[in-house]
Amino acid sequence: MKRAVFSKVTYDERFRRGEEWDLIVSAHRAGIRSHYCEGLIVFHVGRPTRKFLVDSIYAGNYVLFLRKYGLWYIKFNPKHLLAFVFRISLIYAIPVSFVFPFALLVYPATLVAHAINGKVPLFSMGNVVKLCSEFMKGVGEHLYLFRVL
After folding, report:
1. Helices 125-145 and 106-118, interaxial angle, to 10°?
2. What whole-number distance in Å separates Cα of residue 95 and Cα of residue 47?
3. Where are the domains of the chain?
4. In angstroms, rounded to a whole number, what is the distance separating the alpha carbons of residues 106 and 90?
5. Whole-prediction pTM
6. Which residues have CB under 8 Å from 23's CB, separation 6+?
7. Which of 26, 69, 123, 138 is positioned for an S-S bond with 91, CB 3.0–4.6 A?
8. pLDDT digits (tens, 9 = 90+) for 42-94
9. Are 62 and 138 in contact (CB under 8 A)?
């Protein structure tokens, strides 16, 4: 980003993860154009599994986006709403399954969705880790909802 962008957009310290997306959304609302580069390859520095799962809790910050931008954000990024619903359903599927056993189908549905989206084998270890990560993000959504984080 150019330095001039920061005169119109401020950095929000509430976001421990996803702060770059917050900057992009804020810039969009301020009328600053951005461009998407198709095929851009990005690598993240690897971290231990325990730290990865703890960081996933902070990545479940959809509630923060809704608090900051209101219902406008749902229209701006409907995929984020869908991910939020999946994360919440991952948490409540087990208790709800005592009444409605079909609720457990959310787990294979999530695995299939990630396999298709990430173009990875259905039962790969990366897909299972991603499922665990999404579950932890759901925990984070609840913690943000109840203002614990």
Report:
1. 110
2. 32
3. 3-145
4. 7
5. 0.73
6. 1, 5, 9, 11
7. 138
8. 766 766 766 777 778 888 888 889 989 999 999 999 988 888 888 888 888 88
9. no
What six digits make up the tokens of 26? 């804020």
- Both tokens of 82, joined, read 């869908």
**Is-contact 11 23, C-beta < 8 A?**
yes
d(CA 90, CA 6): 37
Give residues with Cβ within 8 angstroms of 30, minimum separation 6. 8, 9
Question: Is the distance from CB of 110 to CB of 62 less than 8 angstroms?
Answer: no
d(CA 69, CA 62): 11
**Interhelix angle for 19-29 vs 62-69, to 10°?**
20
What the block records as the tokens of 4 is 């001039």
**Residues 51, 53: Cα–Cα separation, whole Å:** 5
- What would you report as the CA-atom Rg of the chain, rounded to the nearest whole angstrom? 17
Centre a 10 Å sphere on the Cβ of residue 130 and count the other Cβ atoms it contains.
20
3: amino acid identity, one letter: R
**Which tokens go with 61?**
């910050």
CB 123 within 8 A of CB 147: no
